[in-house]
């Protein structure tokens, strides 16, 4: 009755949570929405007996002003995940291949398989950066899509603008490149590609961003894509209509009105991120998290949980710690010290 391969699909699991524990496993922000954002969503709730306007026109217009882009190059969706799924459907048929540098966001290979395509995983470099040469070497006549996460989740590394452009110049024009910029607002690398600038140079480039991370609307589900008209039109064709609720749309509009205030909170998170990296001897991260490669990841996860803190483990490869504000960072570092976790040496 159901797909014969369904039982082989891994279930995507969100970051763990435990009652009364400090949750640092899902890259969420610590602050709740401001009163003006809550008020905007509440006001929109008064009309939820009616369907919202298709295409989220008010948010699209707000993004046009914020990004200085025309509406034809913006697509709004209920988070970035539906955009990822629609992109795979737009590019791939059964038997086609999608290249994913690995390790990265765990949902990528799953969504590729859901579409009947084949994920091709390429290794990262020894310092956990995306290996663009390995991606190019994996290209075949079956390759239809490449997914790059920048900053990469969970390793926090970034591409430089120069290496990205050199890479794009070698990617066939009929292969779409999805640049997942979920953590864009935390990316303070001095030289890194910006999809809002790069899509005009490369018609096969699609940038994807979200309101779930820096903007603090994880529970509202709002994301958007930036690309040329051909790709944007394909996303509109293959996406379910009316997925962004009126409340989510107006909350996101209000976020953009007050983006300077929210970016002040982002600056606090970046400072705490660098603090954790320094104290634990981790590499520089450009997301709102720190990656700690450790072969004893399971033991570390358990030890820190016993101290009342939840972090995210990636098999026996390492752990990722979400970074929020000074108070929670201090709580985490004190828990780490109490747990007696020693520096890892391979």
UniProtKB/TrEMBL annotation:
Catalyses which reaction(s): L-histidinol phosphate + 2-oxoglutarate = 3-(imidazol-4-yl)-2-oxopropyl phosphate + L-glutamate
Needed cofactors: pyridoxal 5'-phosphate
Known pathway: Amino-acid biosynthesis; L-histidine biosynthesis; L-histidine from 5-phospho-alpha-D-ribose 1-diphosphate: step 7/9
Enzyme type, top EC level: transferase
Keywords linked to the UniProt accession: Amino-acid biosynthesis, Aminotransferase, Histidine biosynthesis, Pyridoxal phosphate, Transferase
N6-(pyridoxal phosphate)lysine sites (modified residues): 213
Entry EC number(s): 2.6.1.9
GO biological process: L-histidine biosynthetic process
Gene3D superfamilies: Aspartate Aminotransferase, domain 1 (3.90.1150.10), Type I PLP-dependent aspartate aminotransferase-like (Major domain) (3.40.640.10)
Aminotransferase class I/classII large domain: residues covered: 20-335
One MF annotation (Gene Ontology) recorded for this entry: histidinol-phosphate transaminase activity
Residue ranges that the Swiss-Prot or TrEMBL entry lists as coiled coil: none
Subunit note: Homodimer.
Family: Belongs to the class-II pyridoxal-phosphate-dependent aminotransferase family. Histidinol-phosphate aminotransferase subfamily.
Protein's name in the database: Histidinol-phosphate aminotransferase
Native organism taxonomy: Bacteria, Bacillati, Actinomycetota, Actinomycetes, Mycobacteriales
